[in-house]
Amino acid sequence: DVTGVQTWCSSDLEGESVTFSATISDAGEARLFYNWDFGDGEQTGGIGKSEIEHTYKNEGSYIIKLVVSDSTSIEVAKEIAVTIENIPPKVMTGSPYQVEEVRSITLDASKSADLDELTFAWDLVVGQTETGESISYTPHNVGANVVTLKISDGVDEVVQDGVVEVTSVAPVVE
Q1: Which of 75, 83, 124, 161 is 20 to 30 A from 25 in CA distance terms?
Q2: The model's pTM
Q3: What is the C-alpha to C-alpha distance for residues 144 and 149, in angstroms, rounded to an integer?
């Protein structure tokens, strides 16, 4: 007989491997078949698969269903709830930048990473904002110009400052 299933989950972050493990009581010498349904449209199973890894691509709440059966078709089932948390975006502003006065520079955050689609908002100077992964920017002041990048994955927003160092150009007399 197969009676009683206990399960545990090892992680709760999207994009990371989660380990599920089941302990069966009173199974004797039976060869057990484990059928795991992860609640996100994916399932797997097999003989002896009492421990399994799965990666959730998105944050959210999931119900994991495990059905364990033996060769006599005796089944026990267990459901557990797991909440997978979002991982905030990793911001890469490319800062610090250097440019000569009156010239434009491309601010590039394309190396920022996340499992989800990202949105980019640049605060350049009071009243001037741009959106996009990479933007063209012409600073107005010689010296350090601080720009602020806000990246969102729809759940978390990360804010990071960058510096555009503007050097003065000597005037040319003709």
Answers
A1: 83
A2: 0.70
A3: 16
